[in-house]
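Sample pair:
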Amino acid sequence: MAIILGLVRGEIQLVDPQVGWKEEFLKTQQQIHEATGLALNRIEHIGSTSINGIKAKPMIDIALGVDDIHHVPVDLLKSLKSIQFYRLQVVLENEVVLAKFLDNGKLDTKTHIIHLVEYKGQKWNDLLSFRDQLNASDLLAQEYEALKLSYLLTGNKDMNDYTLYKEDFVKRTVSRNNTTDS
């Protein structure tokens, strides 16, 4: 059975959870590991496709941990490019973003996103904490799904606005975990 995977540039779509998302991540994790030599524990499934039972944008989000985000080895980026991950012109603090596209030659339908961040740094910890908390609480996961669906009702199709729309929820969730760790 084929899984739904891929989102056209400028489109925001949420689809029902797909059984194959986790397997697709594991396959991609292995490809990244073989191409880069990075340890498997530095390649984590994040984003809504990693959260059990909720609708998600049909793209596999991956956190990839490096030692120093300000000095990413050129060889690492070349190795990722060799498996069709291309650096995007997205400017985020302490993060480099790469994407893989459907093999249609147009580079307009993203299927996978890599968030290159410092391994065990603040962003890394926050990304994994958010995923883990939503997987540990059906109520929290359902609340997040409802928030994402409510954005679609606005009719807006801007990915930056979509991300900002969810930001308070994400920050609240992550800070809840940070205060319990103290």
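The two ends are 45 Å apart (CA to CA).
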